[in-house]
Amino acid sequence: MAAATPHSPPPQLSSPFLEYIRAPGGLDKVVLRGRRSCSVEIRLFGGQVTSWKNDHGEELLFVSSKAIKPPKPFRGGIPICFPQFGTQGNLEQHGFARNRLWAIDDNPPPLPVNPAIKAFVDLILKPSEDDLKMWPHSFEFRLRIALGAGGDLSLTSRIRNTNTDGRPFSYTFAFHTYFSVSDISEVRVEGLETMDYLDNMKGKERFTEQGDAIVFESEVDKVYLAAPSKVAIIDHDMRRTFVVTKEGLPDAVVWNPWDKKAKAMQDFGDSEYKHMLCVEPAAVEKPISLKPGEEWKGRLGLSAVPSSYCSGQLDPLKVLHG
Ligand SMILES: O=P(O)(O)OC[C@H]1O[C@H](O)[C@H](O)[C@@H](O)[C@@H]1O
Question: Binding of substrate: at which residues (predicted)?
Fold first, then answer.
């Protein structure tokens, strides 16, 4: 199904757990509803999750109050970086997928789904003629966004090489997840200690993280290599731990712009860096290569665990490996 134009009727989504909301300027969105006040909002522009709320209706993702409307990328939520992460290539920063209008995929190829999950939507992105001029590869990018019974959020990407000229292609990728945190100075990240990383602030030089949990006192922009499949973000003040799980995505980018860069960013408030942290499951160091007909799958899982779990009773080993 193509994305709705301003004059076409909104797509009929056949589920009480889904709502299609029309909005001008490329801002149409799909809302997934779960138990109590759990919800997820997805904008078709960028195929981007822009809100994830828990069962008390509290927002769990950061969105900048200065976020700019299309055709600019939207600062916050979960932008999709494809087919290029960062400046690692000839394309615009983070590739074009976050800057394109996605469509609802009515007829996606089967994807095993937990029968308890009722609220999900499938999106699809295919390259336009202009995209093919910049990146001469035909692909189908399918994205399933699902809200679990317990309020967990998952995003599954399936990218297929549909080139008919026999050519393989390779790309880098990230789920650029912006978490909402109470105070960045009180946050720690567990699961990445002792990992090797490339420091984007030091010309992508390779270092090894020290043995302690990661805390934040200044700008951070690191690509952790071959990171574990679970990472925990512990927010002391909110008494909340985010558990990030990843499959098919070897790396994890950690980013906070801190004060100076925040001031230089047009679409970001001067002190908003205090209330966000990006932890981005990614494939950056080693691009993924696909031959024609081949498909790659990558999955991001997010859950928010309440306070008792993260104050005193937190057993990091259990959160990360249990
Ligand atoms: O401003 P954007 O293009 O959205 O990028 C925001 C940030 O994304 C990633 O986390 C990169 O590692 C950073 O280097 C970059 O500054």
Answer: 75, 93, 98
- The CA–CA distances, whole Å, from 307 to 55, 164, 241, 304, 310 equal 15, 52, 7, 10, 5
Residue type, 66: K
Measured from the CB, is residue 93 less than 6 Å from ligand 1? yes
CA distance 275 to 102: 29
Q: Which of 176, 190, 272, 285 is catalytic?
A: 176
Is the CB of residue 223 below 6 angstroms from any atom belonging to ligand 1? no
Cβ proximity of 281 and 177 under 8 Å: yes
What's the pLDDT tens digit per position in 214-272? 999 999 999 999 999 999 999 989 999 999 999 999 999 999 999 999 999 999 999 99
Topology at the third CATH level for domain 18-183+252-299: Beta-galactosidase; Chain A, domain 5 (2.70.98)
For residue 257, the ligand 1 atom closest to its alpha carbon is 16
Does pTM top 0.90 for this prediction?
yes
